[in-house]
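ingest -> validate -> predict -> emit
validate: passed (alphabet ok, no gaps, 282 aa)
predict: started
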Amino acid sequence: MLFWGMSFVWSSILLKYFQPVSIIFIRLVISSFFLFSVSLIFNKWEKIQPSDFLLFFFSAVFNPFLYFLGENYGLKYSSPTTTSVIIATIPVFSPIIAYFFFREKLTIINIAGLFLSFGGVILMLITKDFSLNVDKKGILFLTEAVLAALIYSVLVRKLTFRYRPLTIIKYQNLIGIFLFLPIFMLFDAHTTFLVKLNFEIVSSFLLLSILASSLSFVFYTKSIQILGISKANIFSNLIPVFTAIFSFVLLAEHFTIQKLAGMLLVITGVYISEMKFKQKNN
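emit:
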């Protein structure tokens, strides 16, 4: 969640130079190269069963393809903090999805922590007159990203029963490259190759690709494997906290007492939602 929270800042920096599809495409290329290199170096290869080809393909359609389209275009019309806050609504809907498909159950304290955390998210988003200061286009794209993430969590949960997280993410990102390639070549390639590289661009792409697109997704998939969809997604509420902090430090985004109070509620809610789960396992 730390790396994903920072990813909105790195993507915001890259949007000064590139269109959203270009950022996603280059990000996936670097990420795939990194993950396949890790598999080669540490001999972490798994054979994909032919019966799972479609499951891998459709999981990649929802993430990275549809999710990243919604997230990056949403970020284009919103601030990094606003974007991360809307993405952080995923845990609110995750229990419904998890119960319907996997019969995962949450305790009362889990649910209380979830809503407390979501309340902190809303507090970070609203203005002084209690209105939401968000572009309508941004909301539309980010809503699509949230829906894609929810469906993806169901598909990836099924894959975690049979494959390592590293295997799942490297093949999903590889499939994502081919899904984005036609769009990239038709609309963005001619402008992308004209951009002169600098340290800001290169460092943002490397951090975005290795930390956010590679390690974060591997860690997240492993978390779903261990905790289940609902409990793993509760931690998504931490994303806007990290984004707000790094947006303030790196992008000089406005930081208020209201945002600080929202962050405190988010962290408290996440702690409460997981507290009983940990005690049960102990």
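The radius of gyration is 18 Å.
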